[in-house]
Amino acid sequence: MKIIIVGCGKVGMTIVEQLNLEGHDIAVIDTNSVVIHDITNNCDVMGIVGNGASYTVQMEAGIEEADMLIAVTGSDELNLLCCLIAKKAGNCSTIARVRNPTYNNEIDFIKEELGLSMAINPEYAAATEIARILRFPSAIKIDTFAKGRVELLEFRIRSGSVLHNCSLMDVSKKIKANVLVCAVQRGDEIVIPNGSFVLREHDMISIVASPHASKEFFKKIGVETHQVKNAMIVGGGTIAYYLAKQLLNMGIDVKIIESNKNRCEQLSDLLPKAVIINGDATNQEVMIEEGVTHCEAFVSLTGIDEANIFLSLFAKNRSKAKIVTKINRISFDDIINTFNLGSLIYPKFITAEYIVRYVRAMQNTIGSNVETLYRIIENKVEALEFHINEEAPVIGIPLEKLDLKENLLIACINRSGEIISPNGKTQIEMGDTVVIVTTQKALHDIKDILKN
Amino acid sequence: MNYAIIGYILGWVLTLESMFMVLPCIVAVIYRESAGFAFLIVAAACFVAGMLIVRKRPRNQVYFAREGFVTVALCWIVMSIFGALPFVINGDIPSFTDALFETISGFTTTGASILSDVEALSYCSLFWRSFTHWIGGMGVLVFLLAVLPLAGGYNMHLMRAESPGPSVGKLVPKVRETAKILYLIYVGMTVVEIVLLLFAGMPLFDALTTSFGTAGTGGFGIKNSSMGGYSNLIQSIVTVFMILFGVNFNAYYILLLSKNKKSAFRMEEVRWYLGIIGVCILIITFNIKDSFSSLYAAFHHAAFQVGSVITTTGYSTTDFDLWPQLSKTILVLIMFIGACAGSTGGGIKVSRIIILLKTVKQEMSYFIHPRSVKTIRMDGKAMDKDTVRSVSAFLVTYVIIFGFSMLILAFDNLDMVTNFTAITATFNNIGPGLGMVGPTGNFGVFTPVAKYVLMFDMLAGRLELYPLLLLFAPSVWKKN
Asked: Rounded to whole angstroms, what are the CA distances from A386 to A382, A389, B273?
């Protein structure tokens, strides 16, 4: 597809890189010639220096033939204007980043009236993801399929766990839980395992199960499953606001530490139920005074990645809290992972994931559709949910007879609300949605799971 | 420095060259020449060597600007060495230095020859000589980029290092598509020229070689009289196509594929280019009209010569060394200007000249209004400061290389006009100069040392100086 991306900041750059990997024709527009220079050197894309809301610049980027325009500049108003002009100039799909809470409340109206295909709010998306994790703190990452009927949970096997030295066949036999282990990371290696695969402690595993089954599974292996009772949030930015709002709705007590007095007053106005502390979180005394040692969840959301990492390390050292760390910019994933900080949130990846999912769904043939796409285990494994329409070439064939690609697993089938854990005899039927877990990148259609 | 990827790309270039060499083999079969076996041997050797190298893809495929520059420079050198071997093996050009000179002259689309009697060569050698122009015109790595699915966005470094012009851009988002489009336009225009020449009554072999020479703006003729022996119609067709191949290919892309066709005519560079050609033809026509029977004949030859020189092709219809001083001076001056950026021609490039002139204008306005702030614009858009700076640096480097070449050539103790125009003609990839290297002379008069200097100049001129100079920078070769 021909895609124009306006704005080449952190999010823009991530989207460009990911969509470029999927083989789209991409033109990038930014006012800063330096970033354009950099991106054209690293990715096979066309760079244009200019104002993305200008008709001439959009024409130069080929808006007339473009299938989609994604506006992810720092300014909401500019993004909306870009989309509006693109809609008139090229009649393409448009995606805008809209982060201002005021607009966010009216987003349905805006989408409808401006003809946006999608509005993405990275802060809100990040907050939702954090809230989901705090609902079930034993997992590092939780994604949902089939409108919440299936969950994909990522967690690390603790030392001394019953899962240590347990083969996957035994998991279903001994523990009698209806869960499917769909991906395992051990060290640098990532495996899509089969039945004889033996789990070890410290493995990072992803399981697919219904919420009920996963709860049971965690009870049986002796892992806490209740949601946290209170959460301490450091940094009072937009994500903190969205997060606090969601947590308060879930009945979780929220304490926000923010160093800017004015912002504190704003927050206390917006979130009457939350406890707002005006203080510098990098001061140890403040943290201890506010009870970092006793909180059940600790979320560091300041604007400085380094501070977030240090705060999280501190909290990890002093408490047993579930720790969530936001990382905006730095890209030293390997090093950060050695700290064992638990859940890491990269707003730019979450945004990119939403957009990539939309783009893939858009370019699909009628045969089937990507309903949902998640990236798990450091973005190295993809879990996709496909909707099966009548023309899909996999209908009515027992799974064992399908010639599937390697490192690919059919994790579950949702047949009008009923969740089926497939075995070799199971057949996919029309109208199902199917969850596929794979290390293969860029699956666009259900037929892509087959070898040619 | 990622040596593995450089080797890998070199391997592909060798493979590609072996495929190109199949063509002269076919010519040899048609004309039943034993000289063709040389091409067969070298092609086989290239193929085996290339295939051995590319059998394994390097693991680390990340490379940057310096690898791009070095790869391009090395590829051109290696390609020229292998391209020269058949001439030595089949005895058409027994001396290796001479054969290498001839091949580099071919690939760099210079068209300067060391041969005094071109017609003595075998058909397959003649064909290969002209075909090297065609390969070198658009660039062998651009061809590689079009046919080979190399991964990553790094390919732009290769394209940038090989394509001429102050700022190399893409036509479409993907490098591979851009390269394909460029070659499609290139092939298309070449075919049109071949067909027109055939209709004008040229034999097939002549039409093919002449078209290759025109398309690459090379200039190797297959006759001792270059284009002088052909009819007026043929010469006119060649004139038009020489000028067309000197136009920035972006203009053709806009004309053929873009919706906003008018902007092709608004390209400042193309307007200047055509303007310079027009003015020069006019002046020369009136300057030489006395030596021709009619004004039309004078115009015809003036147009051919101006088109041939400014596009850096180097065909000739008459011996312009005999023309009046004014005409000769104009021809030497437009040798430096050269064709448009993004064309197959050489020289400093019209766009660089425009930018330099605008810099001069800007500098003058600084003297008049010391506090004035002014950006240099091209096609209505502000030029990047870095581009302007690099153009000035280009000119300085150009002058320095020119100076050193003059110095070394002086050892041969030939006259100044010969030396000066020999360097001008090779450095700007034109071919014939004045004096002993004029349209009727050849480069055989120089000693081997001087020939190697001229070879360096040809490569430096085609690759726009820096790729070749970087080979001599020790820090480039360090591992990190």
From this structure: 12, 9, 57
